[in-house]
Amino acid sequence: MLRHIINxxxxxxxIKLNHTFSTIYALSSGWGKCGVSIIRVSGPNSSxxxxxxxxxxxxxxxxxxxxxxxxxxxxxxxxxTCLILWFPGPKSxxxxxCCEFHIHGSxxxxxxxxxxxxxxxxxxxxxxxxxxxxxxxxxKMDLIEVEGLADLIKSETEQQRRAALRIVGGELKSLYHCWxxxxxxxxxxxEMLIDFSExxxxxxxxxxxxxxxxxxxxxxxxxxxxxxxxxxxxxANGFRITLVGSPNVGKSTLFNIxxxxxxxxxxxxxGTTRDVLNVSKDLGGYPVIYADTAGIRKFLGGExxxxxxxxxxxxxxxxIIRAKDTISQSDILLVMLEAPKISFSKKSRxxxxxxxxxxxxxxxxxxxELTLDYSLFHKGGSLKVKNANTEINLDxxxxxxKRILFIVNKCDLLVNHVNEIYEDFxxxxxxxxxxxxxxxxxxxxxxxxxxxxxDILVEMCGDSSKGDPFVHSQRQRxxxxxxDKYLKNFLETEFIEHNYVYLARTLQRASRNLSLLxxxxxxxxxxxxxxxxxxxxxxxxxx
Length: 543
Description:
This protein is an alpha/beta fold. The chain is about 45% helix and about 15% strand. The chain folds into three domains: about 5-135, Gyrase A, domain 2, CATH 3.30.1360.120; about 150-235 and about 470-520, Up-down Bundle (Four Helix Bundle (Hemerythrin (Met), subunit A)), CATH 1.20.120; about 235-300 and about 325-460, Rossmann fold. Helix 5 packs antiparallel against helix 6, helix 7 (about 170-195) packs antiparallel against helix 16 (about 500-520) and helix 15 (about 475-490) packs antiparallel against helix 16.
C-alpha cells in the first residue's frame, strides 16, 4: 500500500531536481540496419543541441507551437544530411522542448551521433520509460493512460490493441471519475445530514437514496473487478488451449496444424511426446497458448522390463503427470478420440439414442482410457446439446473458466462406405455443440474446429471494443479492491446520527483510492516513487 500522499507540485519539483540529466536522448527506432533511424531528445537544451550538432549558430528554431521540418547538414564526419523535427514544449509528447534527428540507419551513424550527444554537458542517455515518465510529471498523461500505453506497445493481437486503445483514449479514466463523483456527491449528502439532522422526514429520504446509490456502486465495482480478473488477465497473458488424448491419437499433428509449424514431433510410435509443448499464437484476434501434452494411458503393474524400458516408462509417466497438471490450468480442452476405435456399424436417426450413445462413449473414454476424473472437465457435464429443449440436458453445470471440445480424429481411416459415414458425422455434429469430426491427415474438419474455438473465445472474453473496459493492472485492481472494501464497510454500518461523521470519512477514503488510480486524478495527489517505478519499469528505452 501507499505509505503517504504528497502535494503534486512539490513532488514534481523534487523529482525534477533529482534528475541526473536535464536533457535526455535515446534511439526511438529499432536497433540494426534500416533506412532511417530516429534519435529523440527531450529537455531544455534541445535547441542548443541542434545548433551544436549542425555547426550552425544561425539555424532558426521555431518559437510557435508549429512543427518545423529543417533539412540541414550535420558535421561532415557524421553524415551528409538528416531531417530535424522540432516540438516546442506545450505541443510535445513529454511537455518539454523536444527534437528528433532522422538520420541514416546504420549502426556506425547511430554511434557517431550518440558520441556527440554524450560529450555535451547536462545531456545523458534516457532510462527505460523516462520519456513517458516526464510526460506524466508534466501533466501530459496520467497513470491510467501510461499503463494503457504500455499495454498498447506490448499488444500482439487485435483484441489486445482494441482494449489498450480504449484505456489510452480515456474510457477507463472516465469510468473511474464517474464512480468518484458518485462518492463525493453522497459524502456531501451525509455532511448535509450532520447539519440538518433535525429534519427527520428529509433524513430518511436522503439516507435511503445514499444507501441505494452506494450499494449500486458496490455491485458495479465488484462486478468490474471479477470481470477484469478473468478477461483482463486472459487477454494480457493468453487463453490456454490444451490437447488431451491417448498416445498416437493425432494430438501432435493437430498441434502443428493449429500452430502452423512443425514444433511437435509426429511419429506412429506411441508416447513420442513426453513433455508439455507450448506455443503462443493469435486466434481470431485473441492471444492463445496451445499446449501439446503426452499421450495419457494406463500402465499395467508387475510388468517385467529391462533397465532401458523402465527408464522410458518413468519418463512417460512423468509426462502424463505433467499433462494432467496442464489440464487443470487450461481454459479450453481439446479431447481427442480415434474414429477407428468407435463403432459406426449401426446408423441411427433417433436423436435421444445418439445423445445417449455419444455420452457413454465420451465418458468411458475419459474415465477408462485417460483415467481422468470426469468432473474435472466441465463441472459434471460433457457434450453440449444444441437444442435447449431436448429432453436430455447434459450441460447442467456451466463453467465459464473451462470449456471442452471433443474431437473424433482419423476419420479418413474409415474406408468402408466413407461417404455415408461422413454424412452420419454431419448429422451427429448438428446435434452437439462441442463434438467435431476431423481428419488431421487431410485437414477435414479443422476449419470448423477453429471456428468453434473462436466462438468460445468471443463468448468468454467478448469484444474488447464494446461494453465496459477492463484492465489487468494489479495496481489498479488493488486500489479498486480497497475502495470496494470501504463501500462494504459503509453498507454494513447502521445509519444513526452519531455515525454520520464516520460514514462520511469512509466514503472519503473510498474516493481517495479512486483518485490514486490516475496518479493525479482530480485530487492533486500522486503515488510514491516506489509505485511509479513499478508502472514505468517495463517500458523500453526510447519511450
